[in-house]
Amino acid sequence: MAAPMLRLFFRGWWSRAPTPSGVLPLGSRKAHSRAQGLLAAQKARGLFKDFFPETGTKLELPELFDRGSAGSFPQTIYCGFDPTADSLHVGHLLALLGLFHFQRAGHNAIALVGSATARLGDPSGRTKEREALDAERVLANARALRRGLEALAANHQELFNDGRPWGSFTVLDNAAWYQKQQLVNFLATVGGHFRMGTLLSRLSVQARLKSPEGMSLTEFFYQVLQAYDFYHLFQRYGCRVQLGGSDQLGNIMSGYEFIHKLTGEDVFGITVPLITSTTGAKLGKSAGNAVWLNRDKTSPFELYQFFVRQQDDSVERYLKLFTFLPLPEIDHIMQLHLKEPEKRGPQKRLAAEVTKLVHGREGLDSAKRCTQALYHSSIDALEVMSDQELKELFKEASFSELVLDPGTSVLDTCRKANAIPDGPRGYRMITEGGVSINHRQVTNPESVLVVGQHILKNGLSLLKIGKRNFYVIKWLQL
Fold first, then answer.
1. DSSP code of 92?
2. pLDDT value of position 196
3. Which residues of the chain have pLDDT under 50?
4. Cβ-contact 75, 268 below 8 angstroms
5. SS3 of 125, please?
6. Rounded Cα distance, 354 and 295, in Å
7. 301 vs 37, 161, 405, 477, CA distance in Å?
8. What pLDDT is recorded for position 375?
């Protein structure tokens, strides 16, 4: 059984649920039918992919979440997020939505920032070792990740509340317990409970061992730390379920085996599907195709457009995975889509729901303004856009601050913004219709700028040269 150090963690009120040493009381068939609700609903949406262990999860796991049966209590579920970058991305959203669905059903969710495990690097699903991160970088990333998780949880609470009593949502960092550990003590008390043959048999380990680069001890030890995380949360918070991507099944199995060996009790794992690109590559930082949830890295407009551009053959699945919309409502949206596919109603609803969750109402409004300004040439949208929105929308555009002198002409403006070449060639670009200001073509180089036409109410001008070259001008001293 566990060495004394492993028994230091105490249990609080949250662990009053019956322990699986005798398994949970099964109750009546009617109670079991109710119990299937939460898990079956997410399975039907495609959000919950696999359940572990297979033996027992058909009865014990549903009973664990049946708050209507006698003796049942709110449960605690966790999912880990390693701070290998300073932002979450779309690939993390499904696991986070899984936590939210449990919270909405009255259970307690823990988002675990893995400051300690990020230093090792998870080998799962990787063909080569991650680039090592120093402690200072990991700490900065962890702070940013924590802010991102808390912001998403706040948006969820504020904008998607359904009136039911919800469970709690807590953000923790595994550095809190590993900082107190001494290496030799940890290996002596924890290491003896892991069998090398079992660890080596994991598919993620096998794949790396057969690769040209092999596998470092650092990476190999990752699954031990993730298993210990699960054990710590089980002991300290009564956490009995770990949620993760389908590539995390091996790590979840290690946690289950460790806890079962130490306590004789059962815990469970649930996986969510991995989101891939059109080429089948996993979306994420490592693949270089991440769609970030931090506004500084991916704007609300870009996030919105990522989902608006989804193809018809995937949009229904994404509505089920990425939103809280009831399945009958999704069916209705898809039926309307069959009648008017050109309106792209499901894609717009999907984009709106995700953008609102990630960036709040203001972020969704910003995304819609940018969409109107860029794709519908809306002057009204341009006039209410902030400097930040314009910079986000026209990332490659040159941004200039100019003083509006009396008599400033179209030609003067283009030259001061370095948008056209000097001499006759630049002059001809205007006269030949290659220049527009605020989506309006200008052909007279000598035209004097007019406030309200060439200069918007927010003091900005959007200068476009040719088809794709944009210049954003902020006028000073108006």
1. H
2. 78
3. 1-36, 68-71
4. no
5. coil
6. 14
7. 36, 24, 34, 30
8. 84
Q: Identify the CA nearest to 321 among candidates 275, 262, 290.
A: 275
Residue 478 is given by DSSP the state -
What does the block give as tokens for 433?
């219709």
Q: How far apart are CA 14 and CA 16, in angstroms?
A: 6
Q: Tell me which H or E stretch contains 475.
A: strand 469-476
pLDDT of residue 194: 80
Cis amide leading into 53 (omega within 30) = yes
How far is Cα of residue 323 from the mean position of the Cα atoms in its chain? 13
Neighbouring residues of 80: CB distance < 8 A, sequence distance ≥ 6: 112, 113, 114, 117, 174, 226, 229, 242, 244
Total Cβ atoms within 10 A of residue 77: 24
DSSP 165-211: PP--EEEEETHHHHTT--HHHHHHHHGGGS-HHHHHHSHHHHHHHTS
Length of the chain: 478
Classify burial at 246, counting beta carbons within 10 Å of its beta carbon; exposed 0-12, middle 13-18, buried 19 or more. middle
Q: Which residues of 203-216 are buried (b: 16+ CB within 10 A; e: fewer)?
A: ebbeebeeeeeebe
Count CA within 13 A, CB hemisphere, residue 285: 14
Which three-class secondary structure state does DSSP give residue 65? coil
Which residues lie closer than 8 Å to 275 by C-beta, 6 or more apart? 90, 91, 93, 94, 282, 283
295: nearest Cα among 230, 362, 246, 248: 362
Distance CA 114, CA 251 (A): 14
pLDDT of residue 327: 95
Those residues whose C-beta lies under 8 Å from the C-beta of residue 401, and which sit 6 or more positions away, are 473, 474, 475, 476
Per-residue model confidence (pLDDT) at position 285: 59
Task: Identify the DSSP state of 275.
Answer: P
Question: How many whole angstroms separate alpha carbon 393 and alpha carbon 45?
Answer: 33
Please report how many Cα atoms fall inside a 13 Å half-sphere around the Cα of residue 151, on the Cβ side: 19
pTM for this one?
0.81
Continuous H helices in 47-190 = 54-57, 60-64, 90-104, 115-120, 135-159, 175-178, 183-190
Residue 223 · residue 199 · CB < 8 Å: yes
| DSSP 3-state of 89 | strand
CA of 7: how far to CAs of 11, 177, 188, 191, in Å? Answer: 10, 14, 14, 15
Residues 14 and 108: beta-carbon distance below 8 Å: yes
Determine the Cα–Cα distance for residues 273 and 93; give it in Å rounded to an integer.
Answer: 11
Q: Which residues pair with 474 in a beta bridge?
A: 401, 460
